[in-house]
Amino acid sequence: MALHNSPALKVVKDTDLEDWEVIGSGGFGQIYKAKHRQWCEFVAIKLLHYDDGTGQALLHELDMMQQGSNRHVLQVIGIFKGQSPSSGSSIQMGLVMDFMERGSLADLQQTLQGPPPWPLAFRLTHQIALGINFLHSLSPPVLHLDLKPSNVLLDSDLNAKLTDFGLARFSSSITRTSKKNSNDTGGTIRYMPPEAFDTSYNPSRAFDIYSFGILLWSIATGKKPYPNALSAIVPIRIPMGDRPSLDDIRCTDAGVAGLTRLIDLMQECWRSNPKQRPSSRRK
């Protein structure tokens, strides 16, 4: 399959874009905001470290992601292939996505210096769950494998959209040329389930369900999980059963309607046994 033979995807070249601005970075590369000359609107460009062996997998993954659409999943609208402001003469490949004006949930937490108001927190929780359910309901299912506040983007009305889904299954080949300069582990340790630390682990839907439980805690508290723990200790303690403390949530907002059910859901999602966690699939 070649780029020009994929009718479902728009190919965006560097000559189509102007006003480039770096808005983020990660294990895959840099994320830019740029204005499309013909569309007259800003888009987000997530550039991947170019590797000749990943183009086919990238296109296959994007075709699978385009089986349907969901308002709480960020849609990929095209493939970028060309030079970026930082690549010199090197050719890079990447994803072209809608630009989200309000940034990420992590940005909102930093701005608020704490959790959002409860009505917004409950709405975001519900929308994230709908996004996960959509991904898990595809055939074959798409596993996110890196649910965290920075991967929940917000539109102008503060509606949640999941991003970076479906990429983890070929992340090692995309990032292998830069691993020596990266601490990327293919996931975010503080949101990873205990079974993921087993070297023979094969990811399943239960991975995302666990991460969703930890993400709920982060939304409710406005904090990073295990905020006082050394990073080296976290992957040791999670398989031993340690989970984020619920004391602050219980004591501060005990009278909030629906809070008890939210706490119960967190605990159900982060159970040690993946078979005992809730299912995201439609009934």
TrEMBL record:
The keyword Transferase applies. The lineage of its organism: Eukaryota, Metazoa, Chordata, Craniata, Vertebrata. It comes from the Eukaryota. It holds the Pfam family Pkinase. InterPro entries: Kinase-like_dom_sf, Prot_kinase_dom, Protein_kinase_ATP_BS, Ser/Thr_kinase_AS, Ser/Thr_Kinases-Pseudokinases. Belongs to the protein kinase superfamily. Coiled coil: none annotated. The keyword ATP-binding applies. This is Receptor-interacting serine-threonine kinase 3. One of its GO terms (molecular function) is JUN kinase kinase kinase activity. Residues 17-283 form the Protein kinase domain. ATP binds at K46. Keywords: ATP-binding, Kinase, Nucleotide-binding, Serine/threonine-protein kinase, Transferase.
